[in-house]
Amino acid sequence: MLLMLTACRKPTVVYQGQGLVEEVHPDTATVQINHEEIKGFMPAMSMPYHVKDKTMLDALKVGDRVNFTVEDSTSGTVLIDLKKADATGADKKSEPSGSSTNANKNAAPPPKP
Known about the structure:
Strand order of the largest sheet: 1-2-3-5-4
Radius of gyration: 20 Å
Number of strands: 5
Shape: globular
Helix content: under 10%
Largest sheet: 5 strands, mixed, barrel
Strand content: 35-45%
């Protein structure tokens, strides 16, 4: 009997996705994301996702572009990683204060004396 139950278990699979935050619900640890197709998992759609840890929602707001990792298992579907993305879809990285950015690199050079 135990062997039969084990054979019916679905393996845990992890997928990567990108989308736009439509709603944030810290009280229920969920986020509504209008996401692009998640290859091998589901077509593009808007749907709510539970998050592994509700602190993942602390810095999110409606309209944020995000990259996420979703885990699908016998227990259900849950986001295990969630990061804000820039307009190109790349993860946003915090830069230490005083560091140069692309905007600074493109700035005009100081006038010559």
